[in-house]
Write the structure tokens for this entry.
Amino acid sequence: MNAPRNEALATARNAADYVAAVVRPEVRALTAYHVADPGDLIKLDANESPFPLPEALRAKVAAAVAAVPFHRYPDGGADGVIAALRAAAGIPAALGVLLGNGSDELIEVITCALARPGAAMLVPEPTFVMYRMNALYAGMRCVGVPLAADFTLDVDAMLAAIARERPALVFLASPNNPTGNRFRTADVLRILRAAPGLVVVDEAYAAYAGESLLARVAEFPNLLVLRTVSKIGMAALRLGYAVAAPEWIAQLNKVRQPYNLNALTQAAAQVLLAERAVVDGQVAAIVAERGRLAAALARIPGVEVFPAHANFVLVRLPDAPAWFARLAAAGILVKNLHGAHPLLAQCLRITIGTPAENDALLSALETIA
Ligand SMILES: Cc1ncc(COP(=O)(O)O)c(C=O)c1O
């Protein structure tokens, strides 16, 4: 049978014509994910750790990377990394683990596997934008339910949406990005019990939250906990992991690319994951700075500080775009969220930096205010 004739393609003359004829309209309408160029600015915009690796540890990583057989594909199962993660994060042997090129890739894999025609994804909003983006890529319907004004889950609205939409997939980021707060465990569990499909609790910021559902995954057959090492000093590695019942992991494993975790990452991760003391020390320093920064920000006239359980703090200011620009002029890059969602009006997201970076931020803000 002949394919239906595509008039636009028949008359295409240049690349733009071909693009218009064959690229999906919803993809053409997108703007590519923008990563700001920090130049010389103090970088407080991407929720990274501000602390570099200690020199001795860098040398160990370098030796491990130098020993990688570069002419071979990586270990497709990445068994060494999985074993290191099981030990480092205390993942019970009865649960399955899937690794991703960052948790971003795992969001894509999960969405792709569950995007049956007509299936829905449910997310509270504002939240991490990649959930909705991946629904679009996979052709899955994304239903957003607004958070309450204080950024807690509107559980009744979520339960009503679950009853109405019967979502195959729910994403709950806790602590949530960009709001920074941890959702109440009781609220998450009500959603988990009511959901007819998979509930992904994205714990990218778990190290800073003091609470996690990882130890309870075995209790809930429809719970998957998503983690990443990006927020605890290893953003360059691109390593995320999903923990769920082996039945889920077996299905998701079919959707990932065969060699999704490159050999350099695997070699470095196995060294770094064995060095708990370094990570723990950096996390403790960031948590201490978060307390100091939040208290100091709250003393600046006009600044409202929201509860912060991750490695960043969300603030509301009299004029976020103007303050953002003045901070940039003072050499400091933060994330301007004004315009991203109505609940984020006049908000900036500030990643916790080193003590010196946080001091520079505070003195710039005091000058602006
Ligand atoms: C909630 C949340 N999930 C996932 C990610 C992605 O992390 P990565 O792909 O670096 O593992 C981020 C990054 O900002 C995030 O904020």
In short: The mean pLDDT is 95.
